[in-house]
Amino acid sequence: MRWIRDALARLRPGVLLCGLALGAALLLAAPALLSEETGAPAKAAPPSGPKHPVNLRPVGKPARMATGEVDALGAPIVVACSTCHSLRTEESPATKPAELTKFHKEFPFDHGERSCLACHNPKDYDTLRLADGRALPFTHSLELCTQCHGTQARDYKHGAHGGMNGYWDLTRGPRTRNQCVHCHDPHVPAFPRMQPTFKPRDRFMDAHRDAPKGGAR
Ligand code: HEC
Ligand code: HEC
Ligand code: HEC
Ligand code: HEC
What predicted TM-score, i.e. pTM, was given to this entire model? Predict the structure, then answer.
């Protein structure tokens, strides 16, 4: 048993030294970890300096429409909405797809009981319109959606809906936000359900496992 006592005797100064060093380190670190008055954990200083902008990801769809015809060079003919709509003086414009018999036929639409003109501007079909009648360019449809979808607008504002790219810390770089129509078709806005697929397959493992059964798959 003497060897144990010897070992302990040799160890004790070491342990003592370690303890002292730890204590000293804690004492030194304490002011940094705890704020002096409250004893609460101190907050890291917020990043400072000039901030980069938050950009809106552009919508690449101007108020134009392919006619389905091609020009002499084979390029598709694309016209502005107003090409036709500035000439049309309809007493009672169509309000839902079922009423579209002359054009935009078989229009895919499933957005509640919305009328086309809840969003499109009958005074200028090259624009959208807000509920108060103000015209809104197609490139800013985000504002159109948020006036009716308050919950998502709130979530979008603090970043829980709609996703983003770039930096949380704007002092380090810019951020890009999506618009609603990047993910939702304004006419059929329900987000498509995921299609389940087959599990990934390791053909080498499968070959071994399936060998005795002899069946090719
Ligand atoms: C080639 C001509 C043509 C073009 C281009 C065209 N439209 Fe139309 N649009 C029509 C016609 C015709 C109707 C009426 C269809 C009906 O009542 O059967 C219509 C109907 C509509 C309606 C329903 C309300 C209404 O006035 O009857 C909306 C909304 C609409 N168009 C939006 C657009 C937008 C937005 C564009 C551009 C992206 C566009 N249209 C481009 C011809 C056109
Ligand atoms: C909830 C708002 C909303 C309603 C309701 C709505 N639209 Fe639209 N529509 C839009 C927006 C926003 C765009 C621009 C699409 C984009 O930026 O991708 C658009 C684009 C279009 C276009 C351009 C081509 C295309 O398919 O994107 C046509 C044509 C059109 N709408 C017709 C109609 C017609 C006809 C109706 C009624 C049956 C209607 N819209 C109802 C918001 C709406
Ligand atoms: C005028 C008001 C109005 C505007 C503008 C509007 N919405 Fe809607 N939206 C509604 C209503 C009401 C419903 C609920 C439809 C229902 O279930 O009857 C709805 C439903 C939805 C849904 C759920 C669809 C589903 O089937 O689960 C999505 C997503 C949506 N809207 C996205 C959009 C987007 C994106 C825009 C802008 C292009 C937009 N909305 C503009 C009123 C609006
Ligand atoms: C990055 C893609 C993306 C963007 C951008 C986006 N959404 Fe969505 N949104 C989704 C997904 C995914 C769902 C479906 C969630 C689910 O099915 O549980 C959804 C669901 C919704 C719903 C239906 C909620 C419900 O409970 O059924 C509405 C309404 C909606 N979004 C509105 C908006 C509006 C308004 C904007 C713009 C401010 C927007 N979204 C931008 C991806 C997006």
Answer: 0.81
